[in-house]
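Methods — Computational structure assignment.
A single polypeptide chain was analysed. Its primary sequence is given first, followed by the predicted tertiary structure written as structure tokens.
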Amino acid sequence: MRTVISKGCTIVVGAAAAFALTLTSAPFSSAAVPVPVTLPSADSVVQCAGTEAITYEPGLTLTPRQVTLRAEGTLGPCVTLAGSDYSGGQITFQGSGYLSCSVGGSSSGTAEITWLGGERSRFTFQGAVSLRPDGVTILVLTGEVTSGAFVGEKVVNTITLASSDLTDCLTASGLTSTSGPITLNINPLV
């Protein structure tokens, strides 16, 4: 069993991912009585919708090559029991991988969320790209929060990238940017 404490809230996480919430007026009183609650989606501590824009250097072409990724996005609304400080924020990530327009690929790097309340969550990620026949690309980043809010929790960031300019993949400079909606989940590691 683990206890996660944030801004007057104690979330107790058991092996079966059961949660209890304790609100206290004094800082983290052990006399508080836990009240069982249900999280918004499965075992998520935080679940956010949002948008993200990604740039590629060099651009993606039909031939796989080493590419640097950079992204910025907005999170919100977020559903969480951790309080309104985590109801939205900004996300950035940077990384690299062996990628192309034709076969997708994988990447790794680091990311940071700056929450509305000012706290940050930093995480490392591994990403896998899945290409779909209708021109929609799904990028799934998974990792673990390494510092800041929610340290030790699992992160899954799913980005749906619809590019209207796939013909850029045929040029020497390649496809240099994409954007789309994201779903970010921060879950307990069990």
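Note: Residues 70 and 94 are 4 Å apart (CA to CA).
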